## 1
Amino acid sequence: MKDRTPAEPLRGEAAFRAHKAEIAKRNESAWADGAVQRAAREARLSEQQVADAKRERASLPRQPHR
């Protein structure tokens, strides 16, 4: 077995590409977190709209029956 020597830090184009990949990874993570938060917020809003519509229907006057 060969002992691996410590790798030299990336330089030039390789360093740029590695940094760009790290940024892309963070962006994807942030995008996923945002999607989860948006879904939760939209679910709450939907529930609130359903409750508001139900409350509005309950407060409407009823037509008299003959």
## 2
Amino acid sequence: MRSDRGNGVFSTVFGVGVVLVLLFFASHVLLNLWLTSSIDSVAHDAATDVATSGADDAHLARVEQRAIARARDVLGSFGDRVDLRFEPDPTGRAIILHVRAPALHLLPAFVADPTGLGGTDHRVRVARERPNPS
């Protein structure tokens, strides 16, 4: 008759492994959702600051540079990894900010990539407000 001694080790290790994978997966998703939300908020604020500044075309570049500097300051050290660029609007009626940011990875790429959280790459468009001529 064989002993049952040590039979629970495999199932316990497997169970703990599954719990750890699920914990890392959930943490990965939550961290990237928080990061995307933060970047979107900062980018929208920067575009809104420029759109509501009332700056004419001659001073617009300086206002855009200040907005990008403030956005990078708010994002902290992650701001160095975020690409923020204002793009010209062909109609001249909007401010367009192109935002690119990498994702954070807690899991290996082959596990994290199918989640669809591969970073941020989009444009924020805000209607430009101009002062009324007096």
